[in-house]
Batch of 2 targets.
Target 1
Amino acid sequence: SIPLGYFGGIGSASRKGILVKGSNFLDALTQVKTVVFDKTGTLTKGEFIVSEVVTSNGFTKEEILEYAAYAETNSNHPVAKSISDAFGKDTDSKRIKQVDEISGHGIKAVIDGKTVLAGNDKLLHKENIEHPVCNVEGTVVHVAIDKVYMGYIIISDTLKDDAIEAIEKLKAKNIQTVMLTGDNQFAAAAFAKKLGIDKYFYELLPEDKVKHIETLMEESKGGKVAFVGDGINDAPVIARADIGIAMGALGSDAAIETADVVLMTDSPSKVSIAIDVAKRTRKIVW
Ligand code: ADP
Ligand code: MG
């Protein structure tokens, strides 16, 4: 049978907006040695804003934004909304044929009968299109049309208000902090520095994130590894970690179902509060 104290612990967590799906996860939270965060939507607001458009091969900024906005019309990725906001007009669905959204890469679509790419270095590399490597702090969306490079769009995101505090509180508990992202090296490095995070890994596909979790679990020698994500293409990572934590307000249904712990508000600092509640509960139970 489950000791009564656990019900108290789960109740006390839930009053703080933290849903713990079982007493075993409260126990596991007391043994956390590493907390791994997804970047976009977890540590950052995921509210991207276009900050610059850089042209190439005689194309105009307007043409780059137009083709990118058309390619991104049906995407739910946060970068898609920022491009559509910057374009500022509705798209005409009759011009759009066949859209492929490639996870961790971007979009390949047929617009006006032409093949348009809007995505990162990996996407352009895969499609053999020469493009500059951009040493910028933001997320870069390269745009190409019928194999000709048009230029790139720089999109910036901002840290959540409590992101730095979230990392500080965990470090104060001697817990290792790690950030995983599909984003580029420069965006990752800039955020990692502001956060003071212990380790970060970039340009990762969802399956790479799973591998990193497995490696960190091996390295942690019995200490538990928690992963915190919003579930936009990281549900498999939430499932694999010792403790999968989903952000409830922004997160996807799949992530909330898979997760062991759900944070009802999108505040990364709730992770350290969850650990505090779990430790207090263990003292009562034992
Ligand atoms: P994160 O790991 O930061 O949550 P994602 O895994 O969602 O990021 O995406 C990784 C990268 O893939 C993005 O930074 C972006 O470069 C590219 N990408 C993904 N979806 C799109 C899209 N719809 N349009 C353009 N680029 C995209
Ligand atoms: Mg993500």
Note: The pocket of adenosine-5'-diphosphate (ligand 1) is lined by residues 38-40, 72, 75, 77, 79-80, 101, 104-107, 118-120, 139, 141, 181-183, 232-233 (CB under 6 Å).
Target 2
Amino acid sequence: MCRRVFVTGATSGIGKEIAISFAQYGDNLLLCARREEKLAELKAELEADYDVRVDTFTLDVRNREEVETKVPQAIKAFGGVDILVNNAGLAQGLDDFQDSSIDDAVTMIDTNVKGLIYVARKVLPFMMEQNSGHIINMGSTAGIYAYAKGAVYCATKAAVKTLSDGIRIDTIATDIKVTTIQPGIVETPFSEVRFHGDAQRAASVYAGIDAIQPEDVADIVLYVSNQPKRVQISDVTIMANQQA
Ligand code: NDP
């Protein structure tokens, strides 16, 4: 059966691969992120390669008003939602906490935590109404094992896991499922974003590690979404074989 899948942060890395893998599976897609031209490129690519519907809209998940207006509108125009992949997120900076930028901290909290809450709160009423749905939140191994110089990013990803668990408990009387995906180091533009475009520093993150690829994470997301109604996978941790 063709599902209605809403992916945030679909213009790059893990989110883009998740969109591709759901399209390959035959699901219709509602995609958002901030970069309009990247959304248009992906829509054209997916519609050319697969027999699926792809709706897109620009969204900055940090902007509560924008989320509250655009998300319900987009879902209604799309015809509803079965799966939400709350993937939009980022890290900024890599410094000892005492030296780290408060602006970077605010950006990470606004995107990874508040943005996820804004989106989930606007999607859940549609799922409650139909008594079914699946929220898949992108956490990280950083939320399980804090690492040096990453205190705030790690805290945001620990928050993602706790939010998922809380939403699951609060929707326990429904057929809604909630899953946290917790990848380790994945080779994407994430590190370049983190280091404000410093490609050399970003490449050093993956040195000596056969890092997992975004399609490895997308495979897991598809697997988790394909379980029978009675099965809920609460969380999955996936990391490179060499990651400590
Ligand atoms: P990328 O930088 O490749 O992709 C991030 C995506 O998030 C982009 O599509 C970007 O789109 C979107 N995004 C960022 N900020 C916003 C915003 N304010 N509003 C809407 N969309 C936004 O990184 P990854 O694919 O690696 O990261 C995806 C998720 O996976 C993140 O939540 C990240 O924390 C998590 N993760 C990544 C790991 C890694 O090692 N790469 C490991 C574990 C978890 P645009 O710029 O167009 O808005």
Note: The pocket of NDP is lined by residues 8-15, 33-35, 38, 59-62, 87-90, 111, 115, 138, 140, 183, 185-186, 188-190, 193 (CB under 6 Å).
